[in-house]
């Protein structure tokens, strides 16, 4: 009976690790991609640095940053 409970503890720990990975890493990855892809003169957007990019994202897109799909997939896969 104790072995079955250990499996669930490991599963919940893995889900929490996936959630923490997305919650911490995804905003940084979003800023990195915006800096790499949209920081050109063609788009008309110029970011001064990462903080300027993050503040523009918060002003235009809000705090959500489209976390729902990565949270679900990485939480279940980890």
Describe this structure in words.
It is a single chain. This protein is 74% helix and 0% strand. The chain has one domain. With 78 residues, the chain is mostly helical. It is built from 3 helices and no strands. One of its GO terms (biological process) is mitochondrial L-ornithine transmembrane transport.
Number of spatially distinct domains: 1
Q: How far from one another are the termini?
A: 24 Å
Give the overall pLDDT as a whole number.
78
Tell me the number of strands: 0
Which geometry do the CA atoms define? rod-shaped
Instruction: Round the Cα radius of gyration to an integer and report it.
Output: 18 Å
Estimate what percentage of residues fall within beta strands: under 5%
Please write the string of helix (H) and strand (E) elements.
HHH
Uncertain runs: none
Chain oligomer state: single chain
For the largest beta-sheet, the strand count, sense and barrel status come to:
none
Number of helices: 3
Helical amount: over 70%
GO cellular component, one term: mitochondrial membrane
Family: Belongs to the mitochondrial carrier (TC 2.A.29) family.
Keywords: Membrane, Mitochondrion, Repeat, Transmembrane, Transmembrane helix, Transport
Subcellular location: Mitochondrion membrane
């Amino acid at each position: 009976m104790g072995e079955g409970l250990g499996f669930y503890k490991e599963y919940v720990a893995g889900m929490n690790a996936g959630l923490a990975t997305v919650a911490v890493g995804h905003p940084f990855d979003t800023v990195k991609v915006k800096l790499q892809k949209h920081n050109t003169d063609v788009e008309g957007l110029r970011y001064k640095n990462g903080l300027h990019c993050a503040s523009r994202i918060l002003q235009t897109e809000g705090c959500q940053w489209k976390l729902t799909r990565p949270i679900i997939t990485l939480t279940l896969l980890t």
